[in-house]
Each structure stands twice: as structure tokens, then as C-alpha cells.
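Project outcomes to date are best conveyed with an example. Our students and postdoctoral researchers have been running inverse folding experiments weekly, and each run begins with a structure described purely in C-alpha cells. The record below, which covers 346 residues, was selected by the lab manager from last quarter's runs and is presented without edits.
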């Protein structure tokens, strides 16, 4: 099975890319505003025709095909459900369009609604659904089209903070094993949903590779900023998160999660204190590590520190860096207060 390849040149938009994405994997498409992410996505979907375009999916040449014949489904930030149809018929619309009978299409639709945890919402019209419920129905509709590739355009961006983790969890389950392109500005989405990452800047690919490499050793300023949020994966435990190495990071926000639930801890680099010797004091996590990079970050200095929990970033004032004599190879202790660490469901 070959994957998805996109070669395009759009003169007016100044976008020129040549990308190969693996079959059965999720590739995050990252980059600043105007970098060309939507241009790539819509060129694959067939709703935008760049000056030159060559799109291949699973060995098929999609370049000249109309959008509805490409067997790709687009899931946008806005669920874009048909307002006059209930949830079941919104989902059944895709199999109906593929020629299935009404009864069969509705049976399939009910199955997809169950897959996304939307059983019970069949009779509701879009106006009667919350943002998260509507996005579940939109995911079911995208899957019901039995696409060969799924294109996700910031699927969680319009959701509130409570709904986003739930929908991310649904996506994690349904995206596994599928060929997916995910446009996102969110490092948590990239880390939890994608295997590979491609960074676009000014219409060009500037970085690509496994997401874990991008986050732990970014090679471009954009990726470095993106990776600037500390993110750890693990399991919820009482009062925090247990990382894969067994260390517990204390944090808040995970009180509702059952122990053992897959979770992430996120915290900003300016909340990480760096010490030469282990500090004591208030509830916090202390991690020993080694400085692997010292780089400017605005008016601060950013340290990358390899700990047993992975590479973490800390922003310090230049004065603190000088005082602690921090340089590559220095052994340090990182301290993070529980109140600065946000635990959420993965
Ligand atoms: N409909 C359009 N007509 C003309 N130029 C456009 C159009 N849409 C986007 N562009 C331009 O093409 C370039 C790439 O935009 P694109 O929307 O692909 O970027 P993006 O990475 O998706 O940005 P964002 O994160 O803001 O959605 C930008 O310079 C943008 O201004």
C-alpha cells in the first residue's frame, strides 16, 4: 500500500511543496499563518486547483478527479452539518451518496455514531447539539464516507477546553491505522494524534520527520517555538501524571481522571526553575537532567534539558544563566510547581 504524495506549485500564493506521507499514519502539517497548510489540504481534497498539482493516493492519480470522486474526507474546525437533517441522516448522507439504500445507509450511520460515542443523539438536529457533540457527528460522517484518506483542518480549534480532550480521545481511536493529514497549531494535537510532522514556512517544507524528533530536537525556529510547550505523556495518578519512566509529575486538572487513564502534563518553559542542587520546599516535582542546548528566546534564554522524562525546556533570564554558569553538558535540577502543571486526558 503506497501512501499520499502531493506535489504542487501555486504561483499567486507562493506555495511550492513536494510531500510524501505514509499510508496508515497520521501526518501533522504545521506552520505559521499563511504558510500554505490549507493550500495543501484543499489541493488534496480537490477544492482548490493550484497551477501545477500532482496528488497520488494509494497508487491512484487524483490530480484530475473532481472532489467527490477522490475518496478523501475533510473534517474542518466547523462541523458543517446539514442543518435540516438530524444526526443520523447527516451521517447516512455519505453512504446514500455512494448509492446505498436508505435503510442500509441508516444502519451504517448508527454504527458510526456508536464508534464516536454519539449514540442517543440520532434524532437531534445540528442546532440541538453542543460543539463537541456536533464534532462527533461530523467525525462519524467523515468515516461513513469510507475515505482512503482523512484530512483534518484544526478539528479541535473551535471546541471549548472541556470538549477538546474528549474529541481528541475519539480521534486518537478512530485515526489509528488510517492515512491522515492533520493541520494544527496545537502541540498537544501533534504529539498525541500524529506520527509524522511536516513544517511549512512561507510556502516551503522546512522540516519533516517523526513528531517525537520535531519536539525533542527542533531544527527550525517555528518548530522550536512549537516545542516550547513542555509536554509529557503518561498515565493519570493521584495528584499528577506518571511518565513512562515511572517518575511522577505533580499537577492539577486531572482530578476527574480515573487512575491509569492515558494523560498528558503540559507546562510553560517560564514555570521551570533551574537549580544547581536539588531544592526542597512546596509541592513540586524535581528532576535531575543535563543541559543539551542553550539558545536565545526573545529576551530570555531557553535551555533544553534531557531528563529521565524526556527533553524539557526552561526559559531563564540571561542573568540567571550567567549566575548558574549554565552551558551544554551542565548537570542541573529542574523544579516545577504542581500549580503550573496542567494534567489532561490524552
Ligand atoms: N483564496 C485565496 N486567494 C488568494 N490567496 C490566498 C487564498 N487563500 C490563501 N491565500 C494565500 O496563500 C498563502 C497560503 O495560505 P494558506 O491559507 O494555505 O496558509 P495556512 O498555512 O493554511 O494559513 P492559516 O494557518 O492562517 O490557515 C498565503 O499567502 C495566503 O494569503
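After processing, the design step wrote out the following sequence:
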Amino acid at each position: 500500500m503506497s501512501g499520499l504524495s502531493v506535489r504542487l506549485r501555486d504561483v499567486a500564493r507562493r506555495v511550492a511543496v513536494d510531500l510524501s506521507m505514509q499510508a496508515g499514519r497520521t501526518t501533522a502539517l504545521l506552520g505559521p499563518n499563511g504558510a500554505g497548510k490549507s493550500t495543501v489540504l484543499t489541493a488534496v481534497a480537490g477544492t482548490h486547483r493550484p497551477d501545477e498539482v500532482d496528488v497520488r493516493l494509494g497508487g491512484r492519480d487524483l490530480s484530475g478527479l473532481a472532489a467527490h470522486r477522490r475518496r478523501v474526507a475533510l473534517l474542518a474546525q466547523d462541523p458543517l452539518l446539514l442543518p435540516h437533517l438530524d444526526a443520523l441522516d447527516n451521517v447516512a448522507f455519505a453512504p446514500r451518496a455512494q448509492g446505498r439504500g436508505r435503510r442500509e445507509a441508516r444502519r451504517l450511520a448508527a454504527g458510526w455514531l456508536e464508534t464516536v460515542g454519539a449514540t442517543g443523539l440520532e434524532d437531534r438536529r445540528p442546532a440541538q447539539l453542543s460543539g463537541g457533540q456536533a464534532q462527533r457527528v461530523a467525525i462519524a460522517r467523515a468515516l461513513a464516507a469510507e475515505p482512503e484518506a482523512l484530512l483534518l483542518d484544526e478539528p479541535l480549534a473551535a471546541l471549548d477546553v472541556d470538549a477538546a480532550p474528549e474529541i481528541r480521545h475519539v480521534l486518537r481511536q478512530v485515526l489509528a491505522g488510517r492515512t491522515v493529514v492533520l493541520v494544527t497549531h496545537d502541540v498537544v494535537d501533534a504529539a498525541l494524534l500524529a506520527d509524522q510532522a511536516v513544517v511549512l514556512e512561507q510556502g516551503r517544507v522546512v522540516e519533516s520527520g517523526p513528531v517525537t524528533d520535531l519536539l525533542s530536537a527542533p531544527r527550525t525556529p517555528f518548530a522550536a517555538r512549537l516545542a516550547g510547550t513542555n509536554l509529557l505523556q503518561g498515565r493519570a495518578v493521584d495528584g499528577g501524571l506518571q511518565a513512562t519512566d515511572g517518575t511522577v509529575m505533580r499537577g492539577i486538572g486531572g482530578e476527574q481522571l480515573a487512575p491509569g487513564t492515558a494523560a498528558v502534563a503540559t507546562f510553560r518553559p517560564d514555570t521551570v526553575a533551574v537549580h544547581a542542587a536539588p531544592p526542597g520546599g512546596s509541592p513540586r516535582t524535581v528532576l535531575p537532567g543535563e543541559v543539551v542546548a542553550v539558545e536565545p528566546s526573545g529576551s530570555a534564554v531557553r535551555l533544553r534539558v534531557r531528563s529521565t522524562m524526556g527533553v524539557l525546556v526552561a526559559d531563564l533570564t540571561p542573568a540567571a544563566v550567567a549566575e548558574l554558569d549554565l552551558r551544554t553538558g551542565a548537570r542541573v535540577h529542574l523544579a516545577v510547581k504542581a500549580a503550573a502543571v496542567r494534567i489532561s486526558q490524552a
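The mean pLDDT is 91. The chain has nine helices and 20 strands. The training component of this project remains on track.
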